[in-house]
Amino acid sequence: MKIKLDENLTLQIALQLQRLGHDVHTLDSEGLNGCTDSELRQATQLEERFLITQDLDFSDVRSFAPGTHNGVLLIRLRAPSRQELSHPVLDVFREENVSSWIRCFVVITERKVRVRHPNK
User: Fold this and answer.
1) What is the pLDDT of residue 113?
2) Which residues, 6 or more positions from 47, have their beta carbon under 8 angstroms from its beta carbon?
3) How confident is the model at residue 42, as a pLDDT?
4) Which neighbouring-strand residues pair with 75?
5) How many domains does the chain have?
6) Mean pLDDT by 10 residues, the chain (120 residues)
7) Cβ count near 60 (within 10 Å)
8) E strand segments, the chain
9) Do residues 90 and 13 make contact, with C-beta atoms less than 8 angstroms apart?
10) What's the confidence (pLDDT) of residue 118?
11) Has this prediction a pTM greater than 0.70?
12) The predicted structure's pLDDT at residue 62
């Protein structure tokens, strides 16, 4: 899967996702740190990448309706310390069929994974 990690996620997550076989870009490696949400969305779309973020600006499913983008994974943890953040993300990428998430809006919490697919 082609992934773009938002700057609010650690390089460790990028490295571990790469070890799982994913093509991961970070905002830091592309010189996009501090870019606007609009610039991030545009870059993600141009590269046809799946965005992983904690940014609540990407949480409005009306603005990011499934099928209108290449995919968004929103991480919603109660206390997302840098250490604790990588575990749920990596667990999901090991246990779920993430390749089926292209063009979907996905939210993960401590308790569940919610996937909204594009209307068919």
Assistant:
1) 94
2) 2, 4, 25
3) 92
4) 108
5) 1
6) 92 94 93 89 94 89 87 86 76 93 93 88
7) 10
8) 2-5, 23-26, 50-53, 72-75, 105-108, 113-116
9) yes
10) 92
11) yes
12) 81
Task: Report which residue type is found at 100.
Answer: S
Q: Which residue has the tokens 């460790």?
A: 12
CATH number of the domain that residue 104 is part of:
3.40.50
* Order of strands, sheet of 2-5, starting from the edge strand that comes earlier in the sequence: 23-26, 2-5, 50-53, 72-75, 105-108, 113-116
How far is Cα 82 from Cα 101, in angstroms, rounded to an integer?
24
- CB distance 92 to 50 below 8 Å: no
Can you tell me the distance from the alpha carbon of 110 to that of 19, in angstroms, rounded to the nearest whole number? Answer: 23
- Residue in 109, 102, 9, 2 with CA at minimum distance from that of residue 55: 9
Q: Residues for the chain: how many in total?
A: 120
Question: What are the backbone dihedrals phi and psi of residue 9, each rounded to the nearest 5 degrees, phi first?
Answer: -120, 150
Q: Which domain holds residue 104?
A: 2-116
What residues pair up with 116 in beta bridges, in sequence order?
Answer: 105
Residue the block writes with tokens 């993300």: 89
What's the CA gap between 50 and 101, in Å, rounded? 9
Q: Name which of 115, 44, 107 is nearest 75 in CA terms.
A: 107
